[in-house]
């Protein structure tokens, strides 16, 4: 009897556990990761300082529909919290509340509400944050107003206002309330722009110093985001044909991301055919037929907050023309030249100079420019940036150190009517890889997507399951 009862209890426990786990993936960072990040921050904070990290505001998509919520990467980094309407205080020195309890952090979070949660989703609430995120001093956001703390006593109040300053009272009323209470308790004025920017400079310096060096846990996430993005690019190479639309290609890319569990894209997916490939941040992807042209795809998955940034440029019909090959090869060689400079202690500018030299020399040889220094007409952006929780991740200097992850992304863009032979017009090529800086060199994390002309053409000759996807033609609106 007792055995039977125990079995029933055991089964109930197992079912409850697996039920709870079904709600979300189990490979998020542990609470220890976030606690270690807060400790690392405390070590580099100045004496008598408090760091203030706000959640991002929610954003209106249309009327009563919001964009999918995205947390402030700093708040996620230091806490693991993914919900809106919150503020985290991290203190350099241990503090005491009026009951004599010592604390090093204070966290005000979204209040639980069964009624609201049945509409907009589950919330951790105070108890959930204590248990799951391991931060002991947690309160409901609306208790911050009356919480007894004098922030003005600190020598350094380090904060950065949520984007597009002073969140609107109609769009994000709870966050606006938290900001107001903070301003009062810290006795600061957001109108004093020099104070605000001094605080933000220190905020960026400290968070940049931490976030630019990736921990082993973060590298797991980044490797995953990058590999997923590469498989998406490879799938498109196999599936692509000249009748596809830019949107359809974007759809295949993002389907593959989601198939692997990547929740989001790290930035608006760029799929530009021909002339559209010459628009650097083209994201409307409106061309209904890519045709016999190059398709530039700058598409990166975001996995548990970490964003890849990978670009491949492919001929929609599977074969590069001679002119396309010549431009592509210059960009490829520029990338290789930049790779060779990379190692612990090298600089962004050394990598850029190496790529610039190859591009200017190449364009000159083809007669596209008459003077080497005119290469900037056709290569208008920078070579490299950090990636991480932001696709353009924070950094603190131009020096590259082991365990940084950066992009190397040279490009050549020759819009129609450019001052060169017509045969080059509407060719836009960018190749972008994500590399980990190591002690002696680098590791290319995005090797999973073909880069060379030969490898791309070979991949494109393969078949994709999307080739067999047949949907009914639309009956409406004919
Ligand atoms: Mn990039």
Topology:
Elements: H1 2-21, H2 31-44, E1 49-54, E2 60-62, E3 65-66, H3 73-79, E4 87-96, E5 102-109, H4 114-120, H5 125-133, E6 138-140, E7 156-159, H6 173-186, H7 193-211, H8 216-239, H9 246-259, E8 264-265, E9 270-273, E10 294-298, E11 301-303, E12 306-307, E13 311-315, H10 322-341, H11 348-365, E14 405-408, E15 411-414, E16 427-430, E17 433-437, E18 442-444, H12 453-460
Parallel strand pairs: 1-7, 5-6
Antiparallel strand pairs: 1-4, 2-3, 4-5, 8-11, 9-10, 10-13, 11-12, 14-17, 15-16, 17-18
Helix pairs in contact: 2-3, 8-9, 8-12, 10-11
The structure holds manganese (II) ion.
Catalytic activity: Release of any N-terminal amino acid, including proline, that is linked to proline, even from a dipeptide or tripeptide
Cofactor: Mn(2+)
GO molecular function: aminopeptidase activity
Summarize the structure.
The protein has 478 residues and is an alpha+beta fold. It contains twelve helices and 18 strands. It has two domains: 27-211, 3-Layer(aba) Sandwich (Creatine Amidinohydrolase, Chain A, domain 1); 216-468, Alpha-Beta Complex (Creatine Amidinohydrolase).
CATH fold-type name of the largest domain: Creatine Amidinohydrolase
**Name of the CATH class of the largest domain:** Alpha Beta
Number of strands: 18
- Summed over residues and divided by their number, the pLDDT gives a mean of 93
Organism: Pedobacter boryungensis
GO molecular function: aminopeptidase activity
Family: Belongs to the peptidase M24B family.
Domain Aminopeptidase P N-terminal: 29-168
């Amino acid at each position: 009897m007792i055995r039977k009862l125990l079995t029933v209890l055991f089964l109930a426990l197992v079912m409850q556990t697996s039920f709870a786990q079904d709600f979300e993936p189990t490979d998020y960072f542990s609470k220890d990761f976030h606690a270690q990040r807060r400790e690392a921050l405390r070590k580099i904070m100045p004496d008598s300082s408090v760091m203030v990290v706000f959640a991002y505001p929610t954003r209106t998509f249309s009327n009563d529909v919001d964009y999918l919520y995205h947390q402030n990467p700093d708040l996620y980094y230091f806490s693991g919290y993914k919900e809106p309407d919150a503020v985290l205080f991290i203190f350099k020195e241990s503090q005491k509340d009026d009951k004599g309890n010592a604390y090093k952090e204070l966290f005000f979070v979204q209040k639980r509400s069964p009624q609201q949660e049945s509409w907009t989703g589950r919330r951790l609430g105070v108890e959930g944050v204590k248990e799951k995120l391991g931060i002991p001093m947690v309160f409901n956001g609306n208790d911050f107003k009356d919480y007894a703390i004098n922030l003005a006593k600190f020598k350094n109040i380090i904060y950065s206002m949520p984007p597009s300053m002073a969140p609107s009272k109609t769009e994000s009323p709870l966050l606006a309330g938290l900001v107001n209470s903070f301003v009062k308790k810290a006795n600061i004025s957001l109108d004093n722009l020099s104070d605000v920017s001094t605080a933000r400079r220190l905020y960026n310096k400290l968070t940049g110093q931490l976030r630019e060096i990736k921990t082993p846990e973060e590298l797991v996430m980044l490797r995953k985001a990058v590999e997923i993005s590469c498989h998406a690019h490879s799938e498109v190479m196999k599936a692509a044909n000249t009748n596809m639309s830019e949107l359809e290609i974007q759809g295949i890319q993002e389907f593959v991301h989601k198939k692997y569990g990547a929740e989001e894209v790290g930035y608006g997916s760029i799929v530009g055919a021909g002339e559209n490939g010459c628009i650097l941040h083209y994201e409307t992807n409106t061309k209904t037929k890519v045709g016999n042209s190059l398709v530039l795809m700058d598409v990166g998955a975001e996995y548990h907050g970490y964003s890849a940034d990978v670009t491949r440029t492919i001929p929609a019909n599977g074969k590069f023309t001679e002119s396309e090959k010549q431009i592509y090869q210059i960009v490829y060689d520029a990338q290789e030249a930049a790779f060779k400079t990379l190692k612990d202690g090298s600089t962004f500018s050394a990598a850029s100079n190496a790529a610039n030299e190859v591009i200017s020399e190449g364009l000159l040889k083809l007669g596209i420019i008459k003077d080497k220094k005119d290469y900037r007409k056709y290569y208008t952006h920078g070579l490299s940036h950090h990636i991480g929780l932001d696709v353009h991740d924070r950094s603190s200097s131009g020096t590259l150190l082991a365990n940084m992850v950066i992009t190397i992304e040279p490009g050549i863009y020759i819009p129609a009517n450019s001052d060169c032979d017509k045969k080059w017009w509407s060719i836009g090529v960018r190749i972008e890889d994500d590399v980990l800086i190591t002690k002696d060199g680098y590791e290319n994390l995005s090797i999973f997507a073909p880069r060379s002309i030969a490898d791309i053409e070979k991949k494109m000759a393969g078949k994709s399951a999307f080739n067999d996807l047949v949907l009914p033609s639309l009956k409406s609106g004919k």
